[in-house]
TrEMBL record:
Protein name: L-proline glycine betaine ABC transport system permease protein ProV (TC 3.A.1.12.1)
Domain ABC transporter: 22-286
InterPro entries, A to Z: AAA+_ATPase, ABC_osmolyte_uptake_ATP-bind, ABC_transporter-like_ATP-bd, ABC_transporter-like_CS, P-loop_NTPase
This protein's UniProt keywords: ATP-binding, Nucleotide-binding
SMART domains reported for this sequence: AAA
Family the entry assigns: Belongs to the ABC transporter superfamily.
Pfam families documented for this protein: ABC_tran (PF00005)
């Protein structure tokens, strides 16, 4: 299992080649009259985070991001989770320089975005990044087709090509037949599908979603999450997904970064965050999340003995949640052989391990 505070390791349960797409180092964002001076104060001292925050506030400065570092790997869904005001939106805006960081580095592949000209950044935002926001951000006077084609129009794509591409995207998000509807004729979920289609039209290398489903009611929200996962299976985008909803984070993430008061306090796979929260604050978030639903067979399996006879045991895919194995475990299956696509058997999961994971779940609930 990876180190829970290690923001640099890629921890998906696959052996696919790891390529870092986005690299952020030591990002600070301080609002106020003299952010550079405030930053020097922050870097010069060794105060606890909350003391520093208060001291900067005394001089009229607001510490929105403090020393944020992480990598996002190609094809990964990286979820940033935190309560309102923890700095999530500021962070995602710093990545595209819609908000200018006070200090730090943002690398997109080999390009240092903080050194890029404003002209280059406009190009990056238009051609490389896709963005979806909570309030959909559709143009009310344009129909669905023209909304989706809009970023392609901004790129100067000829009308026939952009219409064809927009139609493909509309089909992809399941809105075929609604091309000529106006945004206000659509439900919230449908409007957000248009937002998603529009952001995908430019075929972005990096996809930022800032609370995209937060305005939707719970049932639609869940449907949209499923839809989002389906699209990601198909498209394999590199994604930074912002949410304040821990259940959503756990459902969608390959890895989660938990933010508090402008800092990332833990980065890890959902299972890592559940099993080894760095502190009581993180643990309190995860109280409502079921370990059995989140922990996968691959994340807690034991090593396969060298002399293992492949014909023994029931084969189960590494991505299977423990919960799905419970009925068979209770019915007497002692050992599951964990497999990964293209690799065959990679480990073993015993009923004993399953029981330990579930005991941890119970213990957490009893302690608090
Ligand atoms: N221009 C600004 N000047 C001063 N403070 C700001 C500015 N913009 C944001 N902040 C502050 O920075 C903090 C982080 O805001 P941010 O919107 O990034 O949080 P968030 O985690 O996305 O919250 P929410 O989920 O409510 O959107 C907030 O306390 C906010 O008031």
């Amino acid at each position: 299992m990876m180190n829970p505070v290690d923001g640099t390791g890629f921890s998906r349960e696959s052996t696919a080649e790891v390529v870092t797409k986005l690299r952020c180092r030591n990002i600070w964002k301080i609002y106020g009259q003299r952010p550079d001076k405030a930053l020097a104060t922050a870097l010069g001292g060794s105060e606890p985070p909350l003391t520093l925050k208060r001291r900067l506030e005394e001089t009229g400065h607001f510490l929105a991001l403090a020393d944020v570092s992480f990598d996002v790997q190609q094809g990964e869904i990286f979820v940033v989770m935190g309560l309102s005001g923890s700095g999530k939106s500021t962070l995602v805006r710093c990545l595209s320089r819609l908000v200018e960081p006070t200090s730090g580095e943002v690398w997109l592949g080999g390009e240092n975005l903080l050194a890029a000209s404003e002209r280059r950044m406009v190009e990056v935002r238009r051609k490389v990044m896709g963005m979806v926001f909570q309030n959909f951000g559709l143009l009310p006077h344009l129909d669905v087709l023209d909304n989706v084609a809009f970023p392609l129009r901004m790129q100067g794509m000829p009308p026939a090509d952009r219409t064809a591409k927009a139609r493909d995207m509309i089909e992809l998000v399941g809105l075929r037949g609604r091309e000529n509807s106006m945004p206000l004729e659509l439900s919230g979920g449908q409007q957000q599908r248009v937002g998603i289609a529009r952001s995908l039209a430019v075929d972005p290398e990096l996809w930022f979603l800032d609370e995209p489903f937060s305005a939707l009611d719970p049932l639609i929200r869940r449907q949209m999450q499923d839809e989002f996962l389906r699209l990601q299976q198909l498209l394999q985008k590199t994604i930074v997904f912002i949410t304040h909803d821990i259940q959503e984070a756990f459902r969608l993430a390959d890895r989660i970064a938990i933010m508090r008061e402008g800092r990332i306090i833990q980065i890890g796979r959902p299972a890592d965050i559940l099993l080894t929260p760095v502190d009581a604050y993180v643990a309190s978030f995860t109280e409502e999340v079921s370990l059995a639903k989140v922990v996968t067979a691959g994340s807690v399996m034991a090593k396969l003995p060298g002399n293992w006879d492949a014909s023994r045991g029931h084969e189960v895919d590494a991505a299977t949640p423990i919960e799905m194995l419970l009925p068979r475990s209770l019915a007497g299956t002692q050992t599951f052989v964990i497999t990964r696509e293209g690799e065959g058997p990679v480990g073993l999961l015993t009923s004993e391990i399953i029981a330990k994971v579930l005991a941890n779940d119970t213990a957490q609930r009893v302690v608090r």
